[in-house]
Amino acid sequence: MARAQDRGPKSGKTSGRPLLTDSLVELIESGASIIVATRDASLRPECVRGLGATVSDDRRRLTVLLNDQLAGRIRAHLADNGHIAVSFSRIVDHHTIQVKGHAVEVRAGHEAEQQALERYLAAFAEQVSLAGLPRSVVRRVCHERCVAVSLLVEELYDQTPGPGAGAPMTP
Question: Are 63 and 152 in contact (CB under 8 A)?
Answer without folding.
Answer: no
